Amino acid sequence: MMLGATAALLGPALLNIRELSRNRPMLRNSKRAGRKLDQGFDNHLNDIKPGAQLVYQVAENTPQSDTVLGRMNEVRNNGAYYAGSTPPGVDPAISINPNSDRAYYAHELGHLASQQTDVGNFVAKLRANPKLAAALTGALVTAPGIAAAVQEGDDDLDESILLAAAAGLPALVDEGLATKHGLAIMDKSGLRASLGQRGKLAGSFMTYLAPAILAGTAGNIVGNQFD
């Protein structure tokens, strides 16, 4: 079971890393769409918070290795350097590989847009809180096993996964909101996301859901040894 779950979840993660490791621009790249997406961001921000303005910096970073695997390793070790955004409370900024799909740039803009709303700002602050992150990580590891241990039988995998997902809820909600706002920004830029681009963002979201699924599955297997 664990091997199957791991294999199913590794696919989206690898595709995401491969996309962000590009050293040559794809057709619908972030660099080319940057100006339109920035304008779309301004339009969207005015829609969700009339009169608001936000000045943000954009850092363009491209992996430097000569090989595909080397570039993928650079992204794996420091993903936020090639697609990332700042949390609330610091000067707003985005890091992006300009060669990557413009949907990734829109997603990072979506993080900044989300932070301008009450709910999005609250969730982003929770996610950035190191003490809360440590507590949730502990819950991510222990709660699924306890739940499986106290329930009779082995048909409790769904409960274990839900508990593990709940422990990682701030990150999941933050990413979901960023995608929602990012897609709206693309619409308002005149660059409506294609089905393929939506698939890439969904795959990126899966990389955040994957730890919960794996932790829930592992905890369930261990917990069921004691019920």
Molecular structure report:
This protein is mainly alpha-helical. The protein is built from 9 helices and 3 strands, in the order ααβαββαααααα. The protein has one domain. About 65% of the residues lie in helices and about 5% in strands.
Number of strands: 3
What's the average pLDDT? 79
Spatial strand arrangement across the major sheet: 1-3-2
How many domains, as an integer?
1
Q: How is the main sheet built?
A: 3 strands, mixed
Structural class: mainly alpha
Q: How are helices and strands ordered from N to C?
A: HHEHEEHHHHHH
Q: What percent strand?
A: under 5%
Low-confidence stretches: 1-8, 143-163, 214-227
Distance between the termini: 19 Å
Q: Kindly provide the radius of gyration, computed on alpha-carbon positions and rounded to a whole number of angstroms.
A: 19 Å
Helix content: 55-70%
Quickly count the helices: 9
Shape: globular
Topology:
Blueprint: H1 2-20, H2 30-48, E1 57-60, H3 68-77, E2 83-85, E3 93-96, H4 102-114, H5 118-128, H6 130-150, H7 157-167, H8 169-188, H9 195-223
Parallel strand pairs: 1-3
Antiparallel strand pairs: 2-3
Top keywords for this entry?
single chain; 227 residues; mainly alpha; 3-stranded mixed sheet; 67% helix; globular; disordered N terminus; disordered C terminus
Short structural summary:
The chain is mainly alpha-helical. It contains nine helices and three strands, in the order H-H-E-H-E-E-H-H-H-H-H-H.
